[in-house]
Amino acid sequence: MAHEIPVTQARAELAELINRVVYGGERVVLTRHGKPLVALVSAADLERLEAERNAPEAVEEEVISSVSSYGSVPSAPGEQGRFGLAAEHRPPGSVG
Description:
49% of the residues lie in helices and 16% in strands. The chain has 96 residues and is α+β, with helices and mostly antiparallel strands. The protein has a domain at 3-44: 3-Layer(aba) Sandwich (YefM-like fold). A three-stranded mixed beta sheet has the order 1-2-3. The longest helix is centred in the middle third of the chain and has 28 residues, at 43-70. The N and C termini lie far apart (61 Å).
């Protein structure tokens, strides 16, 4: 949980707040009229947050790449009827 502090108070305590964030591992949220404006986080926290934000794109690309490398796999004989499937995918140009 982040420590909240008004901007006016943060001005007077900036050096202390920076030390709490960097050395104490705290996160500090600066507020104005009780509403959050900005957060002070360590550079390491910022790097981690940015990596997490970009991670879904990398994971999605990896999944698409791995799935597309498998190509078409036919169903085992009798499995379509067993599960009540009424259709099957056929690549364009195939005759069936």
